[in-house]
Write a structure and sequence with these properties.
The protein is of the alpha/beta class and 322 residues long. It has 10 helices and 9 strands. The protein has a 7-stranded mixed beta sheet, sandwiched between helices. It has a two-stranded antiparallel ribbon with strand order 1-2.
Length: 322
């Protein structure tokens, strides 16, 4: 089949059934919602309307349009070179975690501002809290070790009145800590979410950037930034994704009753074996692995709880009332 005759499905069946982005982008409608997007829309080689996904400004403007059109966020921005995340994948994480909460609540989905969610590594974009609050009315606490990211996330909240009482941003003061210094005395969370740094070094992150640019048809020596951006703390940490998640598991065991479901994305399937081994070591009572697929990319959520069945029931009665 030639490129010009290539047919793309209208519906992205791999996405969660409640994901608002299951269908192909309607650029005409999105441009009406966000007029500045129109300047980046053109007819691609498949004779479809699209944008140049190698253009950081185009990708950022598309995100602005999506957040405004689907989630009622008229004012959103990020500093230059900070992570500009793909919205459909972020929404999938939120919806699958909503299903997990529902499965522990007699299939009634806990919603509203009494549901407290901790976003570890909220980033400058603040996208998880935006989607989670819009879809389910949840309250979020977002944390980050980067002061600039914290400032940007706070600005996104301040610029959108519907977020002001729904999202709180906290700077993590300890670079080696995840929960210490963040969870306040007496505070509990119904779940945590996290998109951990993927790479184990700056060199590995740069190599990944070059591969993505090559996949987008760009010469690696002609472009210096990745279309989705990303600062060092967003892209890599010593030991990469596996080391970060193992540290999270170890530290979560120090606060076993502070959260019903701890969770994190796992991009590399090979990391699951170490995750399971670590969760067994800390005596997690229940462990779930949730598969997700966005196009050709497959990832998964690892979720764990230290609460036994009686504690889970007590939590449900006290906090979810179902």
């Amino acid at each position: 089949m030639s490129e010009k005759s290539k047919i793309f499905p209208l519906e992205k069946s791999g996405l969660h059934q409640r994901n608002k982005h299951r269908f192909r982008y309607n650029f005409e409608l999105l441009s009406k919602t966000c007029p500045e997007l129109a300047a980046f829309v053109s007819i691609n080689k498949y004779n479809n309307e699209s944008i140049d996904f190698s253009d950081p400004k185009a990708v950022k403007t598309l995100n602005k349009a999506l957040l405004k059109h689907f989630y009622g966020i008229p004012n959103w921005d990020i500093p230059a070179n900070y992570l500009c995340p793909p919205i459909p994948g972020r929404a999938d994480y939120i919806h699958y975690m909503a299903d997990l909460l529902s499965s522990c609540n007699n299939d009634v989905l806990p919603d509203g501002k009494s549901i407290n969610i901790l976003d570890i590594g909220v980033g400058a974009n603040c996208v998880y809290p935006i989607i989670g609050n819009s879809e389910y009315g949840w309250h979020f606490v977002g944390t980050d070790i980067d002061p600039t990211a914290v400032e940007s996330a706070e600005q996104n909240i301040a610029s959108n009145p519907i977020l002001k009482e729904a999202v709180e941003i906290r700077l993590q003061p300890y670079s080696s800590a995840i929960f210490r210094g963040i969870i306040k005395p007496g505070e509990v969370f119904d779940m945590t979410i996290c998109n951990p740094p993927f790479h184990s070094s700056l060199a590995e992150a740069n190599a990944g950037t070059e591969r993505k640019w090559m996949n987008l048809g760009k010469k690696k020596d002609s472009i210096s930034t990745l279309n989705f951006g990303g600062k060092n703390s967003e892209l890599w940490c010593r030991g990469g994704e596996e080391a970060f998640v193992l540290k999270m598991i170890e530290q979560s065991a120090l606060s076993p009753e502070k959260c019903f479901w701890y969770s994190t994305l796992i991009s590399k399937k090979d990391n699951l074996a170490g995750v399971y081994k670590s969760l067994k070591k800390v005596n997690a009572f229940e462990v779930k692995t949730i598969e997700m697929a966005q196009g050709q990319k497959v990832s998964r959520i690892a979720a764990w709880s230290f609460l036994d069945l009686q504690q889970q029931n007590d939590w449900r009665i006290k906090r979810w009332k179902a």
